[in-house]
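REQUEST ID: PR-0412
SUBMITTED BY: lab tech R.K.
PRIORITY: routine
TASK: structure prediction, single protein chain
INPUT:
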Amino acid sequence: MTVGKTVRNWGEAAKAFGWTVSAFAAVFGGSAAARAAEAASAGTAAAGYTPMKPTPGIGMPVPGAMGLQQQFSPTGEYGAWIHHGLLWVMGLICLFVLILLLVIVVRFNRRANPVPSKTSHNTILEVVWTLLPVLILVGIAIPSIDLIAKQYKPAPKTALTIKVTGNQWFWTYGYPDNGDFEVVSNMLNIPGQPVINNGVREVGSKPWDGPSHLEVDNRMVVPVGEPIRLQITAADVIHSFAVPSLWFKLDAVPGRINEKVLVVEKPGVYYGQCSELCGAKHGYMPIAVEALPRPQYDAWVLTHAGGVIDSRVKAAPAAPAPAAAAEPAPAATAEASQAAAGDATAAAE
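STATUS: complete
OUTPUT:
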């Protein structure tokens, strides 16, 4: 009896020990597995992003080129259309005035017209040369005002926000909707020339580098095809954030935040420069905007410490807490109290 009881106790103890070991392995092993999964996910995200190689002649100046750069934003395409249309209008007006001058020179010189006309008024002519310029100016004003309105239309509430800060002489890009990390962007040094930024590599050392004086170590990465709210300010002096191929230019003023919407229609790398004289190295303050499809943008975000994917689709609100148990009715409480008192009295008797 004693031996059997002892054996049973040992068996129960061994079973309890086995359960304890299993629970310990489940807790700590599960945590390790979760950490391994997170590390693998981060590694996959890091491996999913490679800087984009720029296309020559796209999003950058071209030697000997004339006119505007090819535009890759809706406002840029509209602005370029207005620009080209106004060139034709100005050209036709100048040609018309030139023809009038030549006609006057040829037909109304001293030899061809020795007796000048004494006409002092011509009502039809005066009405035409007054109303026609007015109509031309109205035709120019309507699309111009429309372009200004499009450029400063407020961003939608769901737009991604990026904060751009100008510094002497580099840019910083903050991503408050993606975990509030910050990217510091410096111009790459040029081989064979004096070092501009200490500790920064030389242009051409990576296969995705663009032209010198324009390429940077860390680009401003944005998702393509989405409205982006750019909030621009400066830390020291006035700068200007300008990217010609995106029709974007906005001053960065210390102590003030200027806001404008940016939409990039096509994946690519687009270059610009600070467009406000800001000190000795003003010419070494380029801008590089890399527009990526949303999956690649999310992968880029996850390569940064603390980076999270912005929640464009809001999470469903939490279910309301269950209602508290209904309190007993006053009448029922009174009846229960009276019954208890009656029972106590009967017991006493």
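NOTES: The CA atoms of residues 70 and 245 lie 6 Å apart.
REVIEWED BY: pending
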